[in-house]
Amino acid sequence: MKKPALFHRFIKRLFDLLLSLTGIVLISPIFILVLLLQWCTTPGTAFFRQERIGKDGKPFHIIKFRTMELDAESEGPQLVNIQNSSRFTRFGQFLRKHHLDELPQLWNVLIGDMSFVGYRPKTKDMRCFLPLGLVSPLKPPFIMVTPTLWIKCCVV
Questions:
Q1: Which of 20, 50, 58, 86 could be bridged to 109 by S-S, CB 3.0 to 4.6 A?
Q2: DSSP code of 68?
Q3: How far apart are CA 80 and CA 82, in angstroms?
Q4: Angle at which helices 90-97 and 6-41 pack, to 10 degrees?
Q5: DSSP characters for 79-92?
Q6: Which of 4, 36, 31 is nearest to 20 (CA)?
Q7: How many other CB atoms are there within 10 angstroms of residue 108's CB atom?
Q8: 3-class DSSP state of 3
Q9: Are the C-beta atoms of residues 108 and 62 closer than 8 Å to each other?
Q10: What are the residue ranges of helices labelled H in 50-122?
């Protein structure tokens, strides 16, 4: 696959920097409110960090507001989202429903781990099975759902 020209990468990074910095400044009152409510309603840390695989297979830690109990992944990560799971905190359900748990990812965009435009970083445990074998977790899978709802996985 052809790499984007230096100018396009510069513009994309500038776009990410300006939007994430503006977003952090504008939404900082919501950040503070969520932090205070999180500390009042649930014990433990307000943030959840998880290792993800970024560009060129480089691992980084994604930051989110914690929506589950502290030991929710003690038996390993759950790769399927189950509605009304007992692992969610009450306030965490609200955060997930309104996508407020994703707000700290603006920091990941600001420091260059993520981008507003691009694929969603996968966990190391997320694997895509193909008839001929397993796709490497270091190469992010591209998942395409066709009209017949067959899922095709390809390494890009």
A1: 20
A2: B
A3: 6
A4: 150
A5: -S--TT-TTB-HHH
A6: 31
A7: 20
A8: coil
A9: yes
A10: 90-97, 105-110
> What's the farthest any 2 CA atoms get from each other in the chain?
50
DSSP 32-95: HHHHHHHHHHSSS-SEEEEEEE-GGG-EEEEEEE--B-TTTTTT----S--TT-TTB-HHHHHH
Q: Are 30 and 103 in contact (CB under 8 A)?
A: yes
Percent of the chain with pLDDT over 90: 29
More confident residue, 69 or 129: 69
Check residues 16 and 90 and name the one with the higher pLDDT. 16
Decide if pLDDT at 66 tops 80.
yes
Give dist(CA 107, CA 38) in Å, integer. Answer: 19
86-127 pLDDT per residue, tens? 677 888 888 888 989 999 999 999 999 999 888 778 777 664
Inter-residue long-range contacts of 2-8, CB under 8 Å, 24+ positions, other chains counted = none
The residue that leads in pLDDT, 122 or 139, is 122
Burial class (CB in 10 A: 0-12, 13-18, 19+), 127: middle
